[in-house]
Amino acid sequence: METESEPYVRLATLRQLHQVVAELNTARSLADTLQTVVDGIVRGLGYELACVNLVRPDGDLVVAAFAGDPAAEALITGRVGSRPAWERRLTMGEDWDGLRFIPHTEGWVLLEDDVPQWHTDGPDPRFEDEWHPEDRLYAPMYATGGELLGVISVDRPRNGRRPGAWGREALQMYAFQAAIAISNARLRANMQRALVRLEREQQALRASEESFRQAFEYAPSGMAIAEMGGDQHGRLLRTNDALCRLLGRPASVLRRYSFSDLVHPEDIGTLLRTSAEGGRAELRLGRRDGTYVWVSLRNSVVADAADGPRFLLTHVEDIEERKRHELQLAHRASHDSLTGLPNSAELRARLGARLCRRPQSVRAGAVEALDAAFEGRPEGVGTGEHGYDGYAAAAVPAGPGPGGEGFDFPAGFPGQPEGPYDHHVHAVAPDSDIDDGTKGLAVLFCDLDGFKSINDRFGHHTGDAVLIEVARRLTTGVRDGDTVARLGGDEFVVLADGLGAADAADLAVRLRNAIIPPIRVDGRAVRVGASFGIGWASCGMSADEVLRSADQRMYIEKRSRSKAHRRAG
């Protein structure tokens, strides 16, 4: 059974979470936003039922949106639960880092209160973490100031189990983003009503302007008014305090700029592609101290009935925290939780990025051409004669190098892609273990010797400490551009580009010697050895084939040494 601890399950969850969170910002009205929230839970977070209980002005909560069951939706949508009853629920059960889980063994006392509820009968759980039909899971949503906006209620996980740590964090992050989306929808609705009054109620212009001013000035997120048309198109005319604080610039200074002056150079295209009316973009704006902050920028046009558009109203939301969470989730999904090294999925992704389907069948001709082109190069550079120290001077080739990597072939060459040139840097494997000057992508498969006995004698705590120290030693022993990954257990893989056969052999010896010294854990010195197999990545191979080749070479090398030599102690 697939579990949420598996990397590809986490990656799939992350993609789904990113997609449904992005869709929260596409809804325009509050009603659309609420329905998008529950639809996203059912479609992207793995629950069959979801509803949003929204806080009304009188404090009670109304079922404002429902997804997953038309019959249940018709029965409870629009029904109201009292605030005291909800406060009771949000203090019962188990606190899951901001979520509130009430198991069926405690929730029976809630069957008669006035909160609208729906559940189906079902058998008792067969195992500890199985979901019971009367289990309840709530995700409260709070505004920036800590005020309760509403409560998300979910039911019937598709896998039939209570969510684990990963699923809880995904639901918690989604509730956080949903609260922002609902607040923004309310803010947009308020702003839209203010703008309509400005145009339709000319006789009450002063009152309408004051209402707009307050909504603009005291908005919790950044707001700006920019000029439209003419030579000064895009110039900021007015900014609120929240935007000034966000960018660290006073309003008088911001009036000298347009957003195109403040945007990060890499995001200028995103800004220009954003349409004026209803346009939205996520980009970076510059602060006064020279740093950049991620923002969500949304535009709407304030139109004049007689003269057409007059100015652009821009809503600027700080999304730095969300971007940081996304990066953290992406890192956790692609890296080993114990050692911090890239995991198996990330290793295969990096290796696959260097491979193409076309086998490198013209290496000899390319080598001859490049030998002629590089005639007269400094002695020893790229030849491998200095071993690992020598290749460190050559580093990873930035362009054409020995062995045909990066060679441009004419259009129509057999096996080449369409187009005048092939700019892919092809991975080439040396023909033998003898260093003939060919440089390639070496794949060093490392298996620790004697690790199982350490685990058996001293326990997993000591074993984990050994793995962490081995990962540190391997990382210290390679170049900055190389990859050290953990496949799992006591297996590690090193990817090192730009090596010859002698370079790779020297690197394996250096890394083995770095692993052998004793490792101290809780005052005890333990030792492990290491067996290395050297494989070579070559275009035409898959990532699994490359790893399998290195793995086989590692076992050949392990069997070639006696058990006494394999064990480090």
From TrEMBL:
<feature type="domain" description="GGDEF">
    <location>
        <begin position="439"/>
        <end position="569"/>
    </location>
</feature>
<dbReference type="Pfam" id="PF01590">
    <property type="entry name" value="GAF"/>
</dbReference>
<dbReference type="InterPro" id="IPR013767">
    <property type="entry name" value="PAS_fold"/>
</dbReference>
<keyword id="KW-0808">Transferase</keyword>
<dbReference type="Pfam" id="PF00989">
    <property type="entry name" value="PAS"/>
</dbReference>
<feature type="domain" description="PAC">
    <location>
        <begin position="279"/>
        <end position="331"/>
    </location>
</feature>
<dbReference type="InterPro" id="IPR000014">
    <property type="entry name" value="PAS"/>
</dbReference>
<dbReference type="InterPro" id="IPR035965">
    <property type="entry name" value="PAS-like_dom_sf"/>
</dbReference>
<dbReference type="InterPro" id="IPR043128">
    <property type="entry name" value="Rev_trsase/Diguanyl_cyclase"/>
</dbReference>
<dbReference type="InterPro" id="IPR003018">
    <property type="entry name" value="GAF"/>
</dbReference>
<dbReference type="InterPro" id="IPR052155">
    <property type="entry name" value="Biofilm_reg_signaling"/>
</dbReference>
<dbReference type="InterPro" id="IPR029016">
    <property type="entry name" value="GAF-like_dom_sf"/>
</dbReference>
<dbReference type="InterPro" id="IPR029787">
    <property type="entry name" value="Nucleotide_cyclase"/>
</dbReference>
<dbReference type="InterPro" id="IPR001610">
    <property type="entry name" value="PAC"/>
</dbReference>
<dbReference type="Pfam" id="PF00990">
    <property type="entry name" value="GGDEF"/>
</dbReference>
<feature type="coiled-coil region">
    <location>
        <begin position="184"/>
        <end position="211"/>
    </location>
</feature>
<keyword id="KW-0548">Nucleotidyltransferase</keyword>
<dbReference type="GO" id="GO:0052621">
    <property type="term" value="F:diguanylate cyclase activity"/>
</dbReference>
<dbReference type="InterPro" id="IPR000700">
    <property type="entry name" value="PAS-assoc_C"/>
</dbReference>
<protein>
    <submittedName>
        <fullName>Diguanylate cyclase CdgB</fullName>
        <ecNumber>2.7.7.65</ecNumber>
    </submittedName>
</protein>
<dbReference type="InterPro" id="IPR000160">
    <property type="entry name" value="GGDEF_dom"/>
</dbReference>
<feature type="domain" description="PAS">
    <location>
        <begin position="208"/>
        <end position="267"/>
    </location>
</feature>
<keyword id="KW-0175">Coiled coil</keyword>
